[in-house]
Amino acid sequence: MKLLVPVLLGGFSLAASKHSPKRYQRKDIRDDEARLGLQKLGFSLLEESDGNGLVSPLSLAGVLHLLAAGGVGNTRSEILEKALGLDYEEFIKSSNGKFQYNWVVEPHNCVMETLIENSKSGDYEFESYTGLFTNLEHDDVINPCKDWNDDSPSHQCVIKKDFIKEYLGENKKIDFQGSYDVLETVNEAVNKATRGNFPEFLDSLPPNTLMVALSALYIESNWYNNKIPAQFSTKMFDVVSNGEIRRNRNNYCFHGSSSRCEAPQEWLKSEELPFDVYNDGSVLVIDLNLKSGSEQDEIIFTIVMPDDMRSFDYRSISPTLKKAQSVWQSQSLEEKWAVLNIPTFEIKMKEDMIGQLRRMGVHAAFSPQNADFSHLFTDHTDSPFVKVLQHAATFSVSKDGIKASAATAAVFATRSLSTQDGKMIYVNKPFYFMLSSRSTGKERAPLFVGKISTLV
Question: Keywords, A to Z (predicted)?
Fold first, then answer.
C-alpha cells in the first residue's frame, strides 16, 4: 500500500510559522461560514456532556480537514457538512464541476497563520505542532486543492515530494510493530507542543495501525483592556479577599448543577472599568480581551451565562454574539462602566470523539465497511478507516489571564475598589465560555469552547 499525502496549500500543517502570513482576499473563500461552522462544532460537542465540558474546535479542525481531503463521497461530505458545518455543494466550482478544497481550508489556515505571526510580537505565547507518523511509503504526494473531483484519476494530481515538509510539518516513517517506541515518539511530540500538559496523550495503538495524524497547540495570554483610560492601572483583576466574600456570601456563591453554594479556587474582581457587557434578560454575555499583538486581530475570552442553563439552547449563542457586538458598537464609553466578578477555574478533558461525531451524523470515516480514503491511500483493499479520534484539552483562568492547550490524533487502522455608577456583575451561575480569534470585520474563530456547570 502506498500513502498519498494531501497537501492543503499552506497548511494542514502549522509548521509554516517561518513564513509570512498569506493574503486571503479571494471572494470565493467562505471565511465566516467556516468560523461559524467551528462555533457550531464546538458547542454541539459540549452538549454531549452533562457537567463541565471542553473542546478545541481549532485543533479538531486540523485533523478533520486531513480526513476530508483524503476522503471520497460520503466520507468527505459527512465531515464537511455534519462536523465542520460547511455546504459541500458550495465548494464545487460551477465552471467545471470540480471540488475546490482550497476554498475550504484557507480560512482555517488564515486563523492559524495569524496566531503564529502575531505571537512573534511577544504579547502572548502560541505554539503548535502538526505531524504525520506512518509505516507506509510516501514517495507520491497528491494535491486535492486545485482540480479534484471524486472521479478524477489521482495521477493528474501528483506533485513533488519536496512540498511534504513545508506543508505537512514533521513527517516520520515509523514501525508500528514497535508499539512502545511509537507511543513514546508520538506522545513526546504532543507533550512538547503543549508545554507538558499531555505526557501520555495516547495510551495504546492498535496492532494494525497504518498512520497517526496529529494536531496540537498551546496558547497563553494576559488580560488586556483596550478601553481603559490612561489614568487607570492596566491591571484588570485582583483576588477577592476572604472578608469580602464572607460579607457578600450570596453573590460569591456559584450555584451549579447542585443546590449547594460552591466555592471556586478564587474569585477575581476588576476595578470599575469599561467592559463589553450585554444582557437581554435571558442571557448575559461578557467579552474580555487578551493581549493579541495586533489591534486588528483580537484574542477574546467570552462568557455566556444563561439565566437558566437547563432550558438554554446552545444554538442561540452565535446569533446572540452578533446581537451583542452590534449593541457594543453603538454604546458610548460611559455606558460600558462595570465591576466584574468572575471565578477562576481549571478544566481538563481527554476522550475519543468518534461517538460524539457519530451522533452529529459523521459515520463513514469510522466504519471499516464504508470508509473511503482512496485519495489518501492508493491501495485501499485493506479498508483503512479511523479507529481512534483522540482529543484532549486544558483551560485555566487566573488573575493574570488564560492558559490553554489541546491535541487531536486520528489513528488510521485497517480492518477591590467600590463601584460608583458602573454595574456590579457576578458570574455566579453555570456558563459557557469561548476563547476566540477575531479579525476586523470577520466572525470569531473559536480556539476553545467550554461549559462550566460546577466548580467543585
Answer: Signal
